[in-house]
Amino acid sequence: MLDTIQTTLTRDQIVAAYTEMLSPDRVLTDEQTLKENSVDRYYKVENVFGTYSLPLPAAVVKPVTKEEVAKILVFANEHLINVVPKTGGSATEGGLETVIENSIVVDGSSMNQILEINTTDMLATVQCGVGLEQLEDELRKIGYTTGHSPQSKPLAQFGGLVATRSIGQFSTLYGGIEDMLVGVETVFPNGEICRIKNVPRRAAGPDIRHLVLGNEGALNYITEVSVKIFRYYPENNKFYGYLLDDLNTGLEILRQVVTAGYRPSVARLYDQEDGLYHFKHFSDGRCVLIFVAEGPKGIAEATGTAIEEIVEAFPEADRVEGTLIEEWFNNLNWDVSKIEEERVEIRETLNNGFTTEISGNWSVIGDIYKNAIARIRAEVPAQFTLLGGHSSHSYLNGTNMYFVYYYKIDCDPTEERTRYHDPIQDIIVEETLKLGGSMCHHHGVGKHRTHFLAEEYGSSLYMLETLKKAFDPNGIMNKGTIFPLEK
């Protein structure tokens, strides 16, 4: 637990200090901006209905250089001001919530320069506020790609992608952000600016990139990122879809494909309910298994042939037209318009949806899914319009499960989270930890899974807590994220 010692400065004093440090146009204090920057998508129901129950930050400050970030953090460190780092704002687990009075939100979205694209060393270096789609568009013009495509691709920016340990929908081939990150620049609360250099590999002690990866703004502020880039071969893409009656059969096919050494860019399995939601035009209420093979022509064709051979051993798997999968593939990501459509739907229908993602070894992932779904149905008195899940990121030793749950809001918006969202997520995490899985696969801990931190880490919690004490001894970095607050 971390204590909740707060600054003795008033809101006006905080605003005045940062206005003098930066400029009035880069210290935002209008009420609506503060409201929108007090939450992320975990509180989306309250946000949709215009209700904001968390403390509003004193200001949103917008640095444009790493030196300004350092000055902002040093002042906050000296005066015990809680700092919430932010770039794109697409977080889902409460990591952007301002739970402490008179916090500041440090918005790095103005640090938005693509610094270098190097096709010899296969690297791109960007500031933290560069959008993933912005870099991807530039790369595709010259025949390259980041290989990174989370659903939030049109919204996400690189600082947040690294801070939350993001993963994309093509991860089975390209890996997660941890596999793509080469070098990174970050600023610590004492103002120390550190740059981890760009090299393909080194054995000079521990891999200190991982002090930055996944820290969720609880240790440092990311200012610059260097990632791998890949050649782009969309003309070679091959699409496969199958219908199954049993989720465990689909999990076994996924396991066989990946453990045989094949790396399709997409390897996804939807249960009956989630499949019906995404593919109602052809799923017929069955599980949906999807593969996409891509890369140089020879690799894509070999991968596709192997998938066909492996699935042939399961006669219960019925193949669907590849064009159906290609159509889905071309419409994967959310943009601002889709988020607005969701907001309108919630207001008009009172139907609301969330997700919780976990991971587990092949030997337990089916039981985690079965046990969690059964408990949710038995214990949560919600009117579900969808309760299911899908596997979307597979590895040699296991896969993830992305639970999806939609229900009618039959209570005050301020009660929705504690009545439904929190209990559902807690059940999923409890069942995952019972069988040795991880409570969060790619969205991060945020502020709403912290009560499971000790069980998640076990004896290694000592290492994590020691990092926090060493790099943020005054506890100013994103209080309540990863590390639980005392109530």
Description:
A seven-stranded antiparallel sheet has the order 15-12-14-13-17-18-16, with helices on both faces. Strands 5-6-10-8-9 form a five-stranded antiparallel sheet. Strands 1-2-4-3 form a four-stranded mixed sheet, with helices on one face. Helix 14 (362-379) packs antiparallel against helix 15. The protein is of the alpha+beta class. It is built from 17 helices and 18 strands. The model has no long low-confidence stretch (mean pLDDT 96). It is globular. Strand 17 (384-391) and strand 18 (398-408) form a beta hairpin. The N and C termini lie close together (9 Å).
Quick overview:
The chain is an alpha+beta fold. It contains 17 helices and 18 strands.
Topology:
Layout: H1 11-21, E1 27-28, H2 31-36, H3 44-48, E2 59-61, H4 66-79, E3 83-86, E4 104-107, E5 114-118, E6 123-127, H5 132-141, E7 144-145, H6 158-163, H7 171-174, H8 177-180, E8 181-187, E9 193-196, E10 221-228, E11 230-231, E12 238-244, H9 247-259, E13 266-270, H10 272-279, E14 287-293, H11 297-312, E15 318-320, H12 322-329, H13 336-349, E16 351-361, H14 362-379, E17 384-391, E18 398-408, H15 413-434, H16 453-457, H17 461-471
Parallel strand pairs: 2-4, 3-4
Antiparallel strand pairs: 1-2, 5-6, 6-10, 7-11, 8-9, 8-10, 12-14, 12-15, 13-14, 13-17, 16-18, 17-18
Helix pairs in contact: 14-15
